[in-house]
Amino acid sequence: MQLPEAKGKFIEAWGKLGSEWGINRTMAQVHALLLVSPAALTTEEIMEELKISRGNANMTLRDLINWGLVEKQHKAGERKEYFFADKDTWNIARQVAKERRKRELDPIIKILDELSKVEGDSKDEAFKTFNKSVTDINKLAKNVDKTLETMLKAEENWFWKSIFKMFK
Amino acid sequence: MQLPEAKGKFIEAWGKLGSEWGINRTMAQVHALLLVSPAALTTEEIMEELKISRGNANMTLRDLINWGLVEKQHKAGERKEYFFADKDTWNIARQVAKERRKRELDPIIKILDELSKVEGDSKDEAFKTFNKSVTDINKLAKNVDKTLETMLKAEENWFWKSIFKMFK
DNA sequence: TTTAACTTTCAAAATTTCATGAAAGTTTAT
DNA sequence: ATAAACTTTCATGAAATTTTGAAAGTTAAA
């Protein structure tokens, strides 16, 4: 396999993975493209390579910047903006974890905390089951939350070392 | 807040979380409903409670069964089928991890392994960047894979005890 | 074997999500 | 101040996904 073909496959695979995880396909593809590009790219180049419209490219790049996965670069003496992706996978993983935690885990923990407080007749099966499920899920969510927090603070090696201690 | 309202909120929240993670909203809602139901429910009851069609209920339940999150129950002397969800959050988490690993992580690792093998001119920046990103992501994916494998084998307590060691 | 209860399928409709591109906006150079 | 280079917005349409419900299929009792 040659590089251009491999590049295409990588972009396609990353796009598919993204869409399975609630990240839009194009966003994942633009990210993939920037990940394998040694130099920062312009909007034009991204549009060209991925065959997407200007509007789409612009919005997608903005999203990627909001996710903290891509940064703008200004080149001295040039009007155009260049975009590049952080290539450090550990940073990428942490950044994604951080965003999803903020956007998804935090809100659900808030709701679960509220629902944990609901009171009812402890002889009522419906109430008992509701309460048990909600508090159990709440506990799990909080464990996940703590683990993510640790991950966000951790150095890559330390984190995986800790994880792999579990194997011994 | 009273139980019925709380139940509704829980179903809504679980549905939203599901859709943010690539699981269809209805599927997550049916799962939520079964999680808070002390007894197994019929298709009719699920249709009624969530205001969904028979076809949708049927397909959704089949999916949940395929994910290993819901089981059928036959009641002696009855024609109808009843459905209930495993209420153990640890089992739920493991089951979801197991399915997603099989459906998503395994295929991407396969592709990354292939792409890691691509050869090229080590003086070519494009090749160098491609190669580094691909192999780095591959390593990360394999770490995640191993961690999931451990999690799947682990007993609940043992797993969380190990996680909490990380905090000390 | 017939019937009725119940389940499954699937083509069409509804909804949701995503991409487009022209127009509006912004910035910099002259 | 104007023009040119470049970026952003957003109404609209296209595509993908989800839902519906009626018809077909299945099963078990009579």
UniProtKB/TrEMBL annotation, chains A, B:
Residue ranges constituting the HTH marR-type domain according to the UniProt record: 22-77
Keywords per UniProt: DNA-binding, Transcription, Transcription regulation
CDD domains: HTH_ARSR (cd00090)
Gene Ontology terms, MF aspect: DNA binding; DNA-binding transcription factor activity
Superkingdom of the organism of origin: Bacteria
Recorded family membership: Belongs to the GbsR family.
PANTHER family with a match to the protein in the record: HTH-TYPE TRANSCRIPTIONAL REGULATOR MJ1563-RELATED (PTHR38465:SF1)
Protein name: HTH-type transcriptional regulator
Native organism: Mucilaginibacter psychrotolerans
